[in-house]
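Design request, tokens follow.
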């Protein structure tokens, strides 16, 4: 990517949910700062319950955030999506679409493919049925399906085909950004690869930006340009995919990386097992929120929340929130120099 242009800038985003009958809140997203650049695939990864899906839905305003900003660069200037009312959000929904994990439940079983895709097309300008049928047919061909399939029902397709229909539907109104929420997690591994390749091709053809949310590090490694690692509602580390895989600085990222299977038997990895489960987002640990599971934890980690530090290497930004990232950064550089 030559000149990086932000398309979405998230600042201090919080999405908290009240716990019924108490004064407590679930801190699902808890102060996220993030820039998403035009044309990139930004992978968002973390264990289940880390807040990545809530982050995606909060950016889209499908869940209204509690606090913070989400600035979207419209052609006529930037606007904070969090401040737009539901009617004003129509304009944003045309530009930002979502593909859900479960294609079965995101398609209405009593609607044909054409019926499912026709409504948004009508809303966004295709007035006649002929225009809409042509568009749906063209979209199905784009996702490598036959145009005749438009008159079939979701139950007549396989999981992979239904996800292709989900992608075609997301593309139907020419969005600029697609949030892919565990978009291939429900598919068999061989079908996952086909769908990921299709998404990569569509991204190039339509100059799309993806926010790709997944718990699966292998999928994230395959598809992402940059990766955000989340833990318990907050960002732990952000870097381009290559840097993150070769020189991660955060102990949590290192543990996630160590779990990626490798095909080369001569190249065994030392698996880092994380003790225990992710703590409850109702009772986020003090200081560094990862300290209860971190093998490098020291007293300061329990008391003080680490700031996000930025390192620049070969012009690329690497951000990490750990008190001991300087030491790890120096260690990585020494290892590289040897
Ligand atoms: Fe581990 Fe401390 Fe770094 Fe947190 S700040 S990741 S507890 S070493």
């Amino acid at each position: 990517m030559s000149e990086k242009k932000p398309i979405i800038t998230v600042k201090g985003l919080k999405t908290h949910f009240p716990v019924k009958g108490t004064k407590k809140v679930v801190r699902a997203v808890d102060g996220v700062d993030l820039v998403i650049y035009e044309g990139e695939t930004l992978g968002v990864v973390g264990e289940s319950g880390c807040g990545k899906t809530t982050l995606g839905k909060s950016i889209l305003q499908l869940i209204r955030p509690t606090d913070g900003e989400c600035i979207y660069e419209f052609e006529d200037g930037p606007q904070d999506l969090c401040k737009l009312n539901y009617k004003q959000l129509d304009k944003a929904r045309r530009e930002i679409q979502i593909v859900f994990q479960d294609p079965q439940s995101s398609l209405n079983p009593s609607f044909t493919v054409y019926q499912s895709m026709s409504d948004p097309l009508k809303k966004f300008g295709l007035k006649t049925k002929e225009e809409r049928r042509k568009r749906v047919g063209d979209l199905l061909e784009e996702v490598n399906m036959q145009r005749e399939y438009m008159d079939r029902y979701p139950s007549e397709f396989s999981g992979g085909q239904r996800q292709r229909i989900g992608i075609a539907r997301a593309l139907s109104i020419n969005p600029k950004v697609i949030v892919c929420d565990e978009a291939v997690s429900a598919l068999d591994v061989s079908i996952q690869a086909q769908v990921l390749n299709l998404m990569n091709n569509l991204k190039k053809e339509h100059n799309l930006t993806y926010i790709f949310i997944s718990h699966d590090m292998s999928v994230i490694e395959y598809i992402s340009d940059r990766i955000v690692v989340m833990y318990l509602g907050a960002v732990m580390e952000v870097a381009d995919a290559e840097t993150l895989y070769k020189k991660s600085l955060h102990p949590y990222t290192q543990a996630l990386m160590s779990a990626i299977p490798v095909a080369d038997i001569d190249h065994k990895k030392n698996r880092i097992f994380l003790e225990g489960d992710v703590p409850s987002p109702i009772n986020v640990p003090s200081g560094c929120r990862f300290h209860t599971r971190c093998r490098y934890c020291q007293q300061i980690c329990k008391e003080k929340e680490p700031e996000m530090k930025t390192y620049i290497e070969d012009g690329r930004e690497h951000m990490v929130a750990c008190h001991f990232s300087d030491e790890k950064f120096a260690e990585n550089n020494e290892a590289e120099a040897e």
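Comment from the thread starter after seeing the answer: thanks! The chain has twelve helices and twelve strands.
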